[in-house]
Specification:
The complex is a heterodimer of chains A (408) and B (410).
Chain A: E1 8-17, H1 23-32, E2 38-39, E3 52-53, H2 69-74, H3 77-93, E4 104-109, H4 115-127, H5 135-139, H6 144-154, E5 160-163, H7 169-183, E6 188-195, H8 199-207, E7 231-239, H9 240-245, E8 252-261, H10 274-287, E9 294-298, H11 305-319, E10 327-329, H12 332-335, H13 342-356, E11 358-359, E12 382-383, E13 388-395, E14 399-407
Helix pairs in contact in A: 3-6, 7-13, 10-11
Chain B: E1 7-15, H1 23-29, E2 35-37, E3 50-52, H2 65-70, H3 73-89, H4 95-99, E4 101-106, H5 112-125, H6 142-151, E5 157-160, H7 166-179, E6 185-192, H8 196-205, E7 236-244, H9 245-250, E8 257-266, H10 283-290, E9 298-302, H11 309-323, E10 331-333, H12 336-339, H13 345-359, E11 361-362, E12 378-379, E13 384-385, E14 390-396, E15 401-408
Parallel strand pairs in B: 4-5, 4-6, 9-10, 9-14, 10-12
Antiparallel strand pairs in B: 1-7, 1-8, 2-3, 6-7, 8-15, 11-13, 14-15
Classes of the chains: A alpha/beta (408), B alpha/beta (410).
Chain lengths: 408, 410
């Protein structure tokens, strides 16, 4: 990027996830090391090997007040998460009336969108209780529908993008938002991701034997798979200059992102983690930082034996001796693997760590994998002064994204 | 505003209802269409029962058998189009170059066919019997992942999902990816396939044309026609090799066009519905367009008009507003009267713009008979040989996301 690229900062935060219906609740739960993984209730999990997930609590899964009943009926579960997180982030940023509507962009990521509802209407058709698909159950299924809903509900008239790169979707959305601010395409971008649990992903990971029978234990010697989760996180980003001019509170700096493709296999990571290392190196180079500058990595850390091994290898390859003083944790033991929302939820956890000076723990980690030559922050959070941090997200398709964040 | 690197188009690859290049271009110029009665699933007892199906495409010509067995049909189309685009661009994909080559695919729905089959199996037979081999194909970015694997590309890899403008949005994101320095080369475009679920939902909504126009047995519904009566679903994949100009010059590539940039905005629209004419052409988007090199030289427009009453009315007002006084000068066409509507149609429109710049001609609106008097644009009723200095690709979608790409003579 040209040296004149502006500094970009995060001025608004919002989330819904298994631990929290707000950012303040999320901070408290991360600090407390709470695990949000429990029995699946959003659909009948009979017949699945694993029957647990990190579900959003019912009170946080209702359409927010003020949504008209006509729209309410059309909303998918992931639309609702996105609406709630966006409302919180916009209020936090104090954006109302501060920026012309056509200067506010929207870049979100997700994978299954409204699939949960689509599955229900398909079942009704198979059972013969319905002869047509409700249009919203199909046309409203792609992740683009959540972007349409947000643009309509909050009158966001700038550029709009919805990205779907599996489990790195919302990390890439953050990247697009950063580039838009750099290029002057928008003054402010509402960015992040949303995902709801559905049978399709649950059945798919179940059939791949990737689901853990007990709450997932990232980086544990005895780890045996991932736990799915759901939720949304939305960030409001703008240039530092724009934020200063309107007197906005800055939570953190968004410095850079790096993306790479493994070009190896659709689901299995490259055995040496070369793609993951390439994404981290690209992100660091664009931020103008050396490995020694990074204090904390929020790892992709799904808890599958292979992912965590390969990610640890990639971190070691990039950080070398600097890995010894690095703290690396996975928040998936707490909020599960939220797929398309994971990049955004974990970037949010990283921002909170930088802002409030603590290391989010790897929940459920009791016996750290000895091949990891860095501090995995097992079980308990602790205070720490952090300057720069990296958030890693890896997805099906061999898609790798790393985002660099810094203390404000 | 700092000077951005220039981006050029150096390769084109097409899988379409009019075949690959050059057949696609020849048929389009001749005013042909790729519409066909649906016989690969049950379209129901009454019309509409027509769609545009890709033809003259053999996946095995582009993909090795072992890879082909794993790959879903949508991914096969995208990978095939990428291989054609790379060959057309004579792109060197040695490991060092491939590391700096990215992929951006736009798809509105992707692999809905296998998604439905997977879920039917799950619902009918239960979770113990689902096929784990199919599951990875159900993520929207499977196609982009396969492209990376098949071609060895390790650069940025994105998949955009933005309704009918997924293709335009993908090209726009690829442009940003190059000018921001994330990659020297990006293979960008989009695709989708006609699936039973998508067909039936649009049919039930009344969004599809019965095929033949009312009162005739030989006339198709056409974009911008007074008597248009709905869209026809299409499918295919169109991929373009986009490249930093310096990079293209250094390797002696043949350049179709410069991608001068894009203008974009969101217009008020209810989710899942086309925007109305009152929402058209916000000043901010017109100003973005005017700021691009070549914006005062737009001689040709490839419009998103798809023969639905609402979208075409919006688009006529949108283009008139975007272009202001020069709207009457540019000649307007659309590919959707020939290949139908799908998530990659805007990428196919971008291919048409590149070819129009190269050849100095614009294909007609194939079936246009009675131009809508409410549309004040200069419509391409017949094939036209024109001097094209710059061409605009205009995309607008359900939900109100709009992107206009500007291509110009290199």
């Amino acid at each position: 990027m040209a040296p004149s690229a502006p500094q970009v900062v995060v001025t608004g935060l919002g989330t819904v996830n298994a631990l929290a219906g707000s950012v303040s609740e999320f901070v408290a739960a991360l600090r407390a090391g709470t695990c949000g993984i429990g029995p699946v209730t959003v659909f009948d999990s009979t017949g699945y090997r694993s029957r647990i997930a990190a579900e959003v609590r019912p009170a946080d899964a209702d359409a927010p007040a003020g949504v008209a009943s006509a729209l309410r009926r059309r909303l998918s579960r992931s639309d609702v998460f996105a609406l709630r997180a966006t409302a919180e982030a916009l209020a936090d940023a104090g954006l109302a009336g501060a920026v012309p509507r056509e200067r506010i962009g929207l870049a979100i990521g997700g994978t299954t969108g409204g699939m949960l509802r689509g599955e229900e209407s398909l079942r009704e058709r198979i059972q013969g209780t319905r002869d047509q698909y409700p249009s919203a159950s199909v046309l409203g299924a792609p992740i683009s529908a959540s972007a349409d809903v947000l643009a309509d509900a909050f009158d966001l008239a700038g550029p709009r993008l919805s990205l779907s790169t599996a489990c790195s979707s919302s990390a890439n959305a953050l990247g697009a938002a950063l580039d838009w601010i750099s290029l002057g395409r928008a003054d402010v971008v509402v960015t992040g991701g949303t995902e709801s649990l559905c049978r399709m992903t649950f059945a798919g990971f179940n059939a791949l034997h990737a689901l853990s029978l007990a709450p997932c234990r990232p980086f544990d010697r005895e780890r045996s798979g991932l736990s799915l989760g759901e939720g949304a996180a939305i960030l409001v980003v703008e240039s530092a200059e724009h934020a200063a001019r309107r007197g906005a509170r800055v939570h953190a700096e968004l410095l850079s992102y790096g993306n790479s493709a493994d070009a190896h296999h659709l689901t299995a990571p490259h055995p040496e983690g070369t793609g993951a290392a390439l994404a981290m190196r690209r992100a660091l180079a664009r931020a103008g930082l050396a490995p020694e500058d990074i204090d904390y990595i929020n790892a992709h850390g799904t808890g599958t034996p292979l992912n965590d091994t390969v990610e640890a290898m990639a971190i070691t390859a990039v950080f070398g001796e600097a890995a010894a003083r690095l703290a690396v944790s996975s928040t998936k033991g707490a909020v599960g693997h939220t797929l398309g929302a994971a990049g955004a939820i974990e970037a949010l956890a990283t921002i909170l760590a930088l802002r409030d000076g603590f290391l989010p723990p790897t929940v459920n980690l009791t016996d750290p994998d000895p091949t990891c030559a860095f501090d995995l922050v097992p079980r308990d959070s602790r205070s720490a002064t952090l300057r720069y941090a990296l958030s890693n997200s890896y997805g099906f398709g061999g898609n790798n994204t790393s985002v660099v964040l810094g203390r404000a | 505003m700092r000077e951005l690197p220039r981006v050029v188009v150096t390769g084109l690859g097409v899988v379409s209802p009019l075949g690959p290049l050059p057949a696609f271009w020849e048929d389009l110029r001749a005013g042909a269409n790729g519409f066909t009665p649906i016989d690969w699933f049950d379209p129901g007892p009454t019309p509409p029962s027509t769609a545009a199906r890709v033809r003259d495409w053999q996946p095995k010509d582009h993909i090795k058998p072992a890879a082909l067995r794993r790959m879903d049909r949508f991914s096969q189309m995208v990978v095939s189009a990428c291989r054609m685009a790379v060959a057309d661009a004579r792109l060197d994909l040695s490991p060092a170059r491939a590391e700096e080559t990215g992929v951006v695919v736009g798809a509105a729905y992707g692999n809905l066919t296998e998604t439905e089959a997977f879920l039917r199996g799950l619902i009918v037979k239960g979770p113990a019997l689902v096929n784990p081999m199919v599951f990875p194909n159900l993520v929207l970015n499977a196609a982009a992942g396969y492209v990376a694997i098949e071609l060895g590309l390790r650069g940025p890899n994105f998949t955009v999902c933005r309704n009918e403008t997924s293709g335009e949005a993908a090209v726009a994101l690829a442009y940003d990816t190059i000018v921001c320095g994330h990659a020297d080369v990006v293979i960008a475009g989009g695709g989708d396939e006609v699936s039973p679920v998508l067909f039936h939902v649009n049919k039930d909504l009344g969004a599809l044309s019965p095929g033949r126009r009312a009162g005739t047995d030989h006339e198709w519904s056409s974009p911008f026609d007074r008597d248009r009566n709905g869209m026809i679903l299409g499918e295919g994949a169109a991929m373009l090799v986009l490249e930093r100009e310096e990079h293209a010059r250094a390797r002696g590539a043949t350049v179709y066009a410069e991608l001068a940039g894009y203008a974009t905005c969101t217009v008020p629209s209810k989710p899942l519905l086309w925007p109305g004419p009152a929402a058209a052409a916000p000043r901010a988007m017109a100003a973005q367009l005017r700021a691009l090199r070549g914006a005062d030289e737009i001689d040709a427009i490839v419009s998103c008009a798809n023969s639905s009453r609402d979208l075409d009315a919006f688009e006529a007002a949108h283009l008139a507003g975007l272009l202001g006084e020069s709207a009457g000068r540019a000649l307007v066409t659309s590919v959707k009267g020939a290949v139908g509507e799908f998530g990659g149609s805007g990428a196919l429109g971008t291919v048409v713009a590149a070819l129009a710049l190269r050849d100095g001609l614009l294909p007609p609106l194939a079936a246009l008979r009675r131009p809508d008097p409410a549309c004040t644009l200069r419509l391409a009723t017949d094939i036209a040989t024109i001097s094209v200095r710059a061409a605009l690709v205009s995309g607008s979608a359900r939900g109100g996301a709009c992107t206009a790409l500007l291509l110009r003579q290199p």
